[in-house]
Amino acid sequence: MLIPLTWDANQDSCEWAILDRQGHVLRRGRAMIGELPQCDETEIVVPASMTGFITAQLPPGNRNKVLSALPFLVEDSLISPPEDIHAALAAQSDSQVVIAVIQKAWCKRILERLARVEIYPARMFPETLLPELPRRGWAVVCRGNESFIRTSPTQGFPLDIDCSDATIPFVLKLALEQTEESTRPAELAIYGDMPEHVESWETQLDIPLVRATQQEWFLNNAKLTFNLLQGEFQPSGGIARRLIPFKPVAITLDTLSASRSRKLSTCSKFWNTRV
Fold first, then answer.
1. Rounded CA gap, 80 and 54, in Å?
2. How far is residue 58's CA from residue 94's CA, in Å, rounded to a whole number?
3. What SS3 string covers the chain?
4. pLDDT by residue (tens digit) across 95-153?
5. Could you tell me the strand order of the sheet in which 155-159 lies?
6. What is the pLDDT of residues 203-228, one digit of tens each?
């Protein structure tokens, strides 16, 4: 799908949910940014299509200097110029890193608009990291052209799924083909509508499809592994000190453009809020 750069804070409302510490929903609703519930800690969940994940090898040299130039480390994999990209370290091993990339201007616009109504997010992460992963599998959220898949604690990607079609999405097939046998998923946990041709999908993929126990994929209470608010977008010390003692909240942007009226029930974006 197209990156939803046309989101307009003055015209598009947001879906939000307030959760307790155990992940139970206390309240949920939909409102313009200026009408969102006031809480002490905010988490922004961005659409799957806004965030990409790139694996890269760490070159020799000063690790801190390398990590400070993450967009240039993955420059060959980017469509946009590195200076237009905000990059965040999602995972790191001895010689390899996983880098999350997102349009810098989009992040800046969202954070500036929230600051006008005195909402200062403590964390921001893609919705791909919310559905709970099966023990030895991947999580698939099926909602038409707003579908996505989570493949690991720090990675995932958007999908376009037609649940009435017996044909496997090409991107899903490609991802499985490029996965090493040792990390190949033993099952796909499905959130949302199950494909009508389950048997055909299972035969083609040679992987069982199971319905996820908790269908509200955005209520995963597991600790998130990284924060997109790094570097220039890192919350300031003053704001962080204000947030620490209090209860957390999260909201999510509805970044739908003209098609939102046609696919409102399947295309909403959640910002999870915890109190």
1. 14
2. 8
3. CCCCCCCCCCCCCEEEEEECCCCCEEEEEEECHHHCCCCCEEEEEECHHHCEEEEEECCCCCHHHHHCCHHHHCHHHCCCCHHHEEEEEEEECCCEEEEEEEEHHHHHHHHHHHHHCCCCEEEEEEHHHCCCCCCCEEEEEECHHHEEEEEECCEEEEECCCCCCCCCCHHHHHHHHCCCHHHCCCEEEEEECCCCCHHHHHHHHCCCEEECCCCCHHHCCCCCCCCCCCHHHCCCHHHHHHHCCCCEEEEEECCCCHHHHCCHHHHCCEEEEEC
4. 778 888 888 888 898 888 888 888 888 888 888 888 988 888 999 999 888 899 999 88
5. 155-159, 147-152, 137-142, 187-192, 209-211
6. 999 999 999 987 888 776 666 778 89
45: which 2 tokens? 């969940």
Q: Tell me the three-class secondary structure of 78-112, residue by residue.
A: CCCCHHHEEEEEEEECCCEEEEEEEEHHHHHHHHH
Contact 228/46 with Cβ under 8 angstroms? yes
- Round to whole Å and give the CA distance between 16 and 27: 8
pTM: 0.75
Give residue 30's identity as a one-letter amino acid code: R
pLDDT digits (tens, 9 = 90+) for 243-263: 433 334 444 444 333 333 333
pLDDT-above-70 percentage for the chain:
73
